[in-house]
Design a protein that fits this description.
139 residues; two-stranded antiparallel ribbon
Length: 139
């Protein structure tokens, strides 16, 4: 076991295992959510509607940008090919939907499905903003 040195005092470092590792946020507003599980679909829907405007930024922050690689890998492993019909369940703001659209091309069709109306609204707005020809195959 190692030690931390604090001034002239040595403090034994605690043994840390993955099972005992917990994220502790110092913000008082986060503490009210820390121990409250989201139990029903309606509460989850409200939660995802509420975080929709910052969802993509949260993905970047919490995964340190790795989610972009994971999504490309998912599309690659999906086996989707040109002309396929694909359903993206829980599509969120549409990241995978757009990648799948590029993969299957104009002869295929991608349908994005999500229970969060706000997430679907953001996905639709992004589709309009990006205006790639291949995104015309998304419903």
């Amino acid at each position: 076991m190692g030690c931390y040195r604090l001034g002239s005092t040595s403090i034994p470092s605690p043994k840390v295992t993955m099972a005992s590792l917990q994220l502790s946020l110092p913000f008082s507003s986060a503490s009210r959510f820390r121990h409250r599980p989201v139990l029903c679909a309606n509460e989850r829907q409200v939660l995802f509607n509420r975080i929709a405007p910052v969802y993509d930024n949260l993905n970047d922050l919490l995964s340190l940008g790795q989610h972009r690689i994971w999504k490309r890998m998912s599309v690659s492993w999906s086996g989707a090919k040109s002309g396929d019909n694909v359903l993206d369940v829980c599509c969120g703001s549409g990241d995978l939907t757009f990648l799948l659209s590029e993969k299957i091309g104009p002869d295929g069709k991608v349908r994005g499905l999500d229970f969060s109306k706000e997430q679907l609204s953001i996905a639709s707005s992004r589709q309009e903003l990006l205006r790639k020809a291949c995104y015309k195959n998304i419903e």
